[in-house]
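Quick log. Single chain, no ligands specified.
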Amino acid sequence: MSGGVELLVSTVLATVTLAHPGKFNAMTRHMWRQLRSVFESIARQPEVRCVVVAGADGNFCAGGDISEYADFRFQESSLRDFHENDVWGALQAMLDCEPPVVAVIEGNCMGAGIEIASCCDIRLAGESARFGAPIARLGFPMAPREAGLVAREVGLAVTRQMLLEAAIFGAVDMKAAGFLSRVLPDEQLATEARASASGIACLSPQAARLNKRTITELLARTPTHGELAYAYAASAEHREGILAFLEKRKPAF
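-> predicted structure:
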């Protein structure tokens, strides 16, 4: 059975599931293109307040589907097209997602999985999850923009070990490196992830979008919307949040 990326939208929450049965949800070219389409679809649904990204059947994503590689990796033009359009097109669509994105990581999170998780804002993992990018064993490097993304989120020291030693890390190690927000018992992961996403969805969606934009610009060191930084002053959500606090009630966002 070929893989796919599934989208389920339930009121204010969207769930994106990576599914490739029998291959630990390894990404095919088709799945990369689907992932881009899914996040572009989410961008057209302003009611969505939080997105959850998970893998099917006990794994997040074990990397790329190596069975496809001989079809395109051995020609520079097709290899470039794969990384710059298929892969980066999907990752950029995730990075451009305005609502917060929560990664729910269990089992294998390798290569492509690390890259996809690096596009998420909150990363929760089960205690048995495993992380790495052992592509040196396959004789090729991580593409430049993908490596930059991973290094930014994972940290240079761990990224070097992943790429140069083909090192595999446990969830506790990745939490210590700052990549993971929380490590949870495997059996509690799904419940805690739902609680996190639901809690985010109850907060101000405007504040979430503006905070994500500010963080992105700080990371890029290109503050481009400084003149708009306070344009939310007269907005309904801003007013409601403060008035609800003063009135000792729950805000109605």
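The radius of gyration is 19 Å.
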